[in-house]
Design brief:
360 residues
Length: 360
């Protein structure tokens, strides 16, 4: 279910795409299907006869027990005298470490879709869907392949809809087929339909129509880092001023360590407070990141190529996305769920302002 913002800046409505299945056929081969954790799946290679997708399951918690068990396995070898009991103890803990590593290590998964022998890829349907990430914070955007017989197979999956849509566009370039979208977008929205050479590029950024900025960190974390840095700085200043008469008898290391710690907290606070993602609207619509005053442009599209703006995300997720549907390719900005609809409206207003400036 997603929130949809129309181009007229009217009311936003909640819509849910219907769920149905369609007939398609393909030869499928999958290796190492994960059972415990969600993973990211991406396109590896694509041609007219075969599609290859791969991903890794995230490391699970047992992997964090490996360092202490490995340390216990090494302790017997540090003893003054090496006895058979100590060697056996070391081997036992080494075996436990190996078992934990094998259990929790990220595992690779590979999926292949092949055309029938002696033929080309037949038309099939691709389905855009989303699920809630196990951590409950973000949505996992996915692309499913639905064959004529058998269950649907997820071939693309990730927390960034922009990346998923770009890869789906590449899949469709080799294996064109109808796409069913279950993200709740408008019927006319086709963010996977990319035509990067559909018009001339602007020579400059043009007049700024507006921008939407969202911090990397959550608001509580930002305030916690500010308060923590302020308290520690005041504490160190109080200690230094109170012992100023006896400062010459204090070991230099006792001064260097607090100064290093305060410096670390100040840098951490600056990183948390200055890190932002931004959609900037002008002659181009660009997605930028800013950290410590340094701005990096991640992606951009032409203003006239934008077809719509939508707020999408899973109902229970903390982070949603403002999705810009463009013929030059999609742009997606991660935003808090509570602000997603309003930010989508702000982007739409900025687009209207930039278009008015260009036309005048």
């Amino acid at each position: 279910m997603t929130l949809e913002t129309d181009e007229s800046m009217g009311m936003s409505s909640v819509s849910e795409a219907p769920r149905w299945r369609h007939d398609n056929d393909a030869v499928r081969r999958e290796t190492r299907r994960p059972e415990r954790a969600q993973q990211r799946l991406e396109l590896v290679s694509a041609d007219a006869s075969r599609l290859v997708f791969a991903g890794r399951r995230p490391a699970s918690s047992p992997i964090f027990l490996c360092p202490p068990t490995l340390a216990l396995a090494a302790l017997p070898w540090l003893a003054p005298e090496l006895t058979p009991v100590r060697v056996a103890t070391s081997l036992v803990f080494l075996g436990v470490t190996s078992a934990l590593a094998a259990w929790g290590w990220p595992r690779r998964r590979q999926i292949e879709l092949s055309a029938p022998a002696g033929g080309v890829a037949a038309p099939r349907r691709w389905v855009l869907d989303m699920t809630l990430d196990p951590d409950g914070r973000t949505a996992l955007y996915s692309v499913e392949h639905e064959p004529a017989e058998g269950a649907a197979l997820t071939v693309l999956e990730g927390p960034d809809p922009e990346r998923v849509l770009w890869q789906l566009s590449e899949v469709l370039r080799h294996w064109p087929a109808p796409v069913e979208c279950r993200w709740g977008l408008a019927a006319a929205a086709h963010p996977w339909s990319i035509e990067p050479h559909s018009g001339p590029r602007p020579r400059g950024d043009g007049q700024l129509g507006g921008s939407v900025a969202v911090p990397f960190a959550h608001e509580p974390l930002i305030w916690c880092t500010r308060l923590m840095a302020a308290f520690v700085v005041l504490d160190v200043l109080f200690l230094v001023t109170s012992v100023a008469p006896t400062l010459h008898v204090i070991h230099p290391l006792s001064l260097v360590l607090p100064v290093l710690f305060v410096t670390y907290l100040i840098v951490l606070s600056l990183v948390v407070n200055t890190g932002t993602s931004r959609l900037r609207v002008g002659g181009r619509v660009s997605r930028e990141t800013s950290l410590l005053g340094l701005v990096t442009r991640r992606a951009e599209v032409r203003l006239e190529s934008v077809r719509g703006v939508y707020a999408i995300g899973a109902p229970g997720a903390e982070r949603w996305h403002v999705l810009v549907d463009s013929a030059d390719g999609p742009l997606a900005l991660a935003v808090p769920r509570q602000r997603a609809t309003q930010l989508a409206r702000d982007v739409e207003r900025a687009l209207q302002s930039a278009r008015s400036a260009v036309s005048s």
